[in-house]
């Protein structure tokens, strides 16, 4: 008897992929395509030809100084953010503070870690700026002139203090789950073996947490390196950092060179991408330890 041909079911589009379709469109339009444009523009002349001159032009005193200043700014804010944020998170998790403190702290950290740009700069200028609320109060009530002591918010260290407003909360958000992952049995075992609290942290807890701490440091470094709105709103063009120099090149004034701006942005992409890849790698290692 003749057999009937096997009918194949028509292929259907997997509907479960529709859930990430908006994210894919958003990432393509506002992340992937602009990044590709920056990479291509870094190696193009104004008329569209290929050139390496834009990359060679990065090797100037002004641009090298801008990169070095940005690296120092990112390093200091990442280091201070890690130190202070770790201490605050450890105090909440292990310090015996009331349980009601943890939830408000994490809620505030979630808000503050995303509070940046012009509103953050205005808040600090209105608070501790040259005529800020606290600055004037200290001068009129206690005779303390912060400017006489060398403090200037519109400077490198003033920008460091401002960046810590979102760097410390970000550290708290990331390191708190890692601290929660430390098992109580490890501390009890160390105590049974005669280890003190300092020895436990030095020989058990910190080696386990080190990948998380170093990874978070890399993330905070990348976070500060790419910030531009806060720095420009606070100090203007007087502070020589890469984001401000990049803004000056691409805004279209007479001295602007968009292709040099693309090269500056390409350098920033390489640095921040390296820091983020280091964070991802260390985070995977730390999660493996905590399991």
Automatic annotation (TrEMBL):
The ABC transmembrane type-1 domain covers 67-281
Q: Which UniProt keywords apply?
A: Cell membrane, Membrane, Transmembrane, Transmembrane helix, Transport
Q: How does it sit in the membrane?
A: Multi-pass membrane protein
Q: Which Gene3D superfamilies match?
A: MetI-like (1.10.3720.10)
Residues in a coiled coil are: none
What InterPro entries does the record tag this protein with? MetI-like (IPR000515), MetI-like_sf (IPR035906)
Cross-referenced CDD domains, in alphabetical order?
TM_PBP2
Where is the protein situated, by its record's location annotation? Cell membrane
Please give the start and end residues of each transmembrane region.
Answer: 15-33, 73-97, 117-138, 150-179, 199-221, 228-248, 260-282
Q: What is its main location?
A: membrane
On the tree of life, the source organism's domain of life is: Bacteria
Family stated for the protein in its record: Belongs to the binding-protein-dependent transport system permease family. CysTW subfamily.
Its name, as the record gives it, is ABC transporter permease subunit
Question: Which taxonomic lineage does the organism of this UniProt entry have?
Answer: Bacteria, Pseudomonadati, Pseudomonadota, Alphaproteobacteria, Rhodobacterales
